[in-house]
Description:
The complex is a heterodimer.
Chain A: H1 2-19, H2 21-35, H3 37-57, E1 60-66, H4 71-87, E2 91-97, H5 100-112, E3 119-121, H6 127-132, H7 140-144, H8 152-166, E4 175-176, E5 179-184, H9 185-190, H10 201-211, E6 219-221, H11 230-241, H12 257-271, H13 284-292, E7 296-302, E8 317-319, E9 330-332, E10 340-342, H14 349-359, H15 362-372, E11 375-376, H16 379-382, H17 393-400, E12 404-406, H18 416-432, H19 438-459
Parallel strand pairs in A: 1-2, 1-3, 6-7, 9-12
Antiparallel strand pairs in A: 3-10, 4-11, 5-7, 5-8
Helix pairs in contact in A: 11-12, 18-19
Chain B: H1 2-19, H2 25-33, H3 40-81, E1 83-84, E2 94-95, H4 99-106, H5 110-140, H6 146-153, H7 161-171, H8 178-185, H9 201-227, H10 231-239, H11 244-272, H12 276-281, H13 293-304, H14 307-332
Amino acid sequence: MKKRLLAVLLAGAMVLSVTACGASEQKADAPAEKEDTTAEAEKAPAEEAEAEEEAAGEVVELRLMDVQGADERTEYFEWAIEKFHEENPDIHVTFESVPWDSSYNKLVNLGAAGDMPDIFVNNAKWFQEFDDAGWIYHLDEYWEGYKDQIVDTGVEYIQKNQIDIYGSVLGFPHSANPESFLIRTDWLEEVGMTVEDLTTWDGIYEAVEKMTDPSKNRYGMSYRGGQGGLTQLYYAIMAATGGINFEEDGRSVFYRDEVKAAVQDHLNMYLNGYAPTDSINWAFVETVQAFSSGLTGVLFNNADVMGTFGDLDESSWASLKFPEGKDGKIYATVGGYGGFSISGQTEHPDEAWEFLTFLNNDEILKEYCLKFYALPATKSLSSDPQFAEGKMAGFVETLNADNTVDIHWIGYFPEATEFERVIFDAEMQACLLGQQTVDEMCDKLGDWLTEKQKAYMDSNPNGIVPNSVVE
Amino acid sequence: MVKDTLSGVLAPCEVLLFSAHLCDKRELAVFRSSGFIQREGVKDSMRKFGKKAEPHIFMTPAYIMMLIFMGYPLVNTVRMAFLNYKVSRPDDISFAGFGNFEKIFADANMGMITKNSLIFVAVTLFFQFTLGFILALALKKPFKGRGIYQAIVFCPWAFSGTVVGLVFKWMFNGEYGLLNTVLMDLGLIERKISFLGTPGLSLISVIVALVWQGIPFFGIMILAALQSVPEELIEAAKIDGAGSFKRFLNVTVPYIKPTLVVTVLLRTIWIFNNADLIYTMTGGGPANTSHNLSSYMFTRAYATLDYGFASALGVLFMLGLTLYILWFFKVTKYNQAGDNV
């Protein structure tokens, strides 16, 4: 028995020695090294140098995501990235693109999965939720050393729309992408109107009505009844209330008669047949296609959309100065700076910042602004007159006008995105279908907003109430 | 004692090695001749155990994958259904009890959307099954060019839901859509129809797209089943004087019943869970009238980031579909399927 036990033990020892072979091979060098200290001394610097070389050769990988998927934009960003690689061989940026209408879902998905791109084009309306979730890197430290290069309106915008509200800089000021109306001037001329007639909201509605001619398959408005349909109406509401969203006690202005009248005017464009029936479901893509294909005469959108009109004759359309409210003031979003954010999940914030500042260098930013009708955020380019001419004229006039009032978005409660993406669209569509009246729609929306705003005010006594200060 | 212990340890090792085919009988003979293995009773029982365990050992990688990709999400969904869980508030997660389920039943849209889901499943399934069956019967007998025809008609099954959604969205477009153009050219309509902007029609448009996409699934499955029906059975029925309809009803259908039951069951679940076509074509609009439960859950989950609410909806789906499966098996007498030919 002892012999057998011994045999097993010996066999076990043999197995152990065999399995430990790899380790013993590695360790075999150690005594030899100890014996030959001179050799070790010579070897050490060589190994260090090799390690340094490896470290130096290590390329940092960054992902950049654009949320306005378009071939022209992809082409631009790939060009910019190539330029960046030439100057920064140790940082490699991979470009990703996603269509605007699905961009929010995509980013939420990636954020929830812990896989957000290092840098992404952000939307100020998403700041609250994304910041709460920890998906945005706070740029304050970088900002202090950089803001001198940004135009004053840009610095003010970041202060008012980011620092004052969220306590931090969440978006990198790259370029301004203001919103306004784009109009078919050739159609306008045909109906005996001029751009000067369109300085008020009523003027816009009149042009929409007159330009509609079903016999020519023409409709006045690229009506956005689907996702994002709130935006245009929201500006009309702000013009009606003088930039006020909530009463002092947190009640929504949707209960006000002037708001209900503004909503009725907006809905009439669809109800009276000045927009295609299908537009009840239209979102970004469909409204832009309808305008660029010659189906509709008026489009409300950001300036950058002008770069995607393809074959539409340049001389046949123009941008409008934002319409005035009944008090003679323009209620618009001034600036819209802060397009890029660095993800809170990134492991390379320094390199991401490096890339963002590269995007703001004169050559790269100028190309972007000229190509996509944007206004540069940097002082070095802001004085260039070519950015205020041509198609950008209407947008720039709005920004520079003395009577322009910078408005707030619908509210800073966390459910603001839900209101824009689910609640509002469904209620407006029900109204467009005749399932409810404007009064019923506004009261429902008012109830919803009031509840959320009051809850926000209770939990944030020092929170910002999104009412504009009219001087 | 040591010998007993060793033989006790080595016996299962031997069985495992044997069952895993890692050693051959000659090697086992060496172990036996060494005298370690003497407990034949233990050895036999372990061998039997090993025989039974063998398939599971080979399936282990699949089990692990299933646990990771199905088990974990399933358990996590049930867990989240009972939590106040907003993705944007990772530090503010708390137990919600049945709060999320209460929110579902309090949702004013839920009645309409549940009704939509039932219509969506019933109508789509009916047309997919009927047309798929006809397709399979048409393709059963060989004819010239059958292979090419077969390849073409089975194509839709290979397309992703998003692609199909975009194609049909353009076809049903109220202004530029192919369908409106064709109907107007044929003189069937005077004014363009807003297929995707009219309640009712928008749901039908999505159903049409899904029917088109799903027909090949039934076609492929039923065709394979039809080709497996033994000719002798058909011949025997012929000799007994059965006509073609009777042969089809009393021989073919019972023989392929297991395939029919499983395909209908699978398709029901898939259609019920289908959200991509609705999301792509109508976004659930206008005014939520083309949402089904699945697309509504998808929209709510992303718009509100309220994964607790969406998970509760998912748990209700799961329960509902499980009950449906049990009921379906009972009604179709699945256990007896194929035995009564």
